[in-house]
Amino acid sequence: MSTVAQPSWHTPAGGGGDGRGRRGAEDRGSARRPSAAEAKHELRRRVRTQRGHRSPRLRDQVAERLAAVVLTIPEVAHASCVSVYASRPGEPGTGPVIEALAGRGVRLLLPVLGTGLQRDWAEYDGAHDLRERAPGRPPEPGTPPLGADAVRDADVVLVPALAVDAAGTRLGQGGGWYDRVLAHVRPGVPVVALVHADEVLGVPLPREPHDRPVSAVATPERWWRVGAADG
Fold first, then answer.
1. pLDDT of residue 186
2. How far apart are alpha carbons 160 and 25 in whole angstroms?
3. Name one GO molecular function term (predicted).
């Protein structure tokens, strides 16, 4: 069972059979419900807090188990080019899956974050080449940038997420970077969100017009397809 508190942006049913119950329900209904942005902000806070409670040893175990699962995804197993990312502290670790794919000779594209929401990619050239270019940003390769459209070369796109629901709605960090990136992915290419098991929600996430869904989810325990790709 999930240990991340489920979001509560749905208005609870209320009211009894008498006038007092109806008035109470009306009073509760008249309170302003949180907007999608506000609900996302609160859920991000909860997930980040939960992630902060995991020990370094547990994070290492999670990363190894996650790699073992991701490598069983058929599209990953047969890919010649994969878009992935260097995880930040608290995120499910991607180091082992990156090293495993690189060891197979798979071409790896990692994000390079420019100013503002500028999108770019660079090829992975080993862990020694990764650098944190600015506080709070994920480590980036030092190889030449390839441009925003380079992600179209990817046979699979592995993306970070704070949470995901059964429809494939993904909760990101809030900057919208990956929502814009996914517009460049070739049609039909699997987009896989990497999360902890307790970050898969049993209620729908609020989806805004700019949100782009994923087509699969991978946790340290298993992976599965979601949304239109389910089944």
1. 95
2. 40
3. metal ion binding
Q: Is 163 domain-assigned? A: yes
Instruction: Decide: 67 and 96 in contact? Cβ < 8 Å.
Output: yes
Looking up tokens 């080993």 gives 126
Residue tagged 């046979």 (tokens): 155
Answer whether residue 128 is part of any domain: yes
Mode of pairing for the β-strands spanning 119-123 and 170-171: unpaired
More confident residue, 35 or 221: 221
The amino acid at 178: Y
pTM: 0.83
Helices (H), the chain: 19-30, 36-52, 56-70, 74-77, 95-103, 177-181
**pLDDT tens per residue, range 8-19:** 433 333 344 444
Instruction: Name every residue whose Cβ is closer than 8 Å to that of residue 103 and which is 6 or more positions away in sequence.
Output: none
C-alpha distances in Å from residue 65, one per residue of 163, 204, 218: 18, 27, 11
For residue 94, the domain's CATH number is 3.40.50.10420
**Per-residue pLDDT, 189:** 97
How many degrees, rounded to 5, is the angle at CA 196 between CA 192 and CA 202? Answer: 85
- Pairwise CA distance, residues 231 & 221, whole Å: 19
Cα angle for residues 158, 210, 162 (degrees, 5° grid): 45
pLDDT at 229: 56
User: Rounded mean pLDDT of the chain?
Assistant: 84
Q: Note whether residue 28 is domain-resident.
A: no
Instruction: Answer whether residue 71 is part of any domain.
Output: yes
Structural domains of the chain, count = 1
At 13-38, the pLDDT tens digits run 334 444 444 555 444 444 667 787 78
Q: Which two tokens stand for residue 1?
A: 């069972």
